[in-house]
Design a protein that fits this description.
Helix content: over 70%
Strand content: under 5%
Radius of gyration: 12 Å
Shape: elongated
Number of strands: 0
Distance between the termini: 41 Å
Low-confidence stretches: none
Amino acid sequence: MIRNLFLVLKRIIMATLIIYAYNSLAPSTNVFIPINIFNIFLVSCFGLIAMFELIVFSFFF
């Protein structure tokens, strides 16, 4: 039970850090991904595929 809780917390923290790192390292593309619950949930559940989709979605909308 506690192990599953730590796994979920680790994925949420890593998702937040991945989004923050992208926003810090890619300002020249003029694409900003907001750090909110929905985006963190997507990246923590689906990983880098969701991150790529958020970037592509930000380019077009």
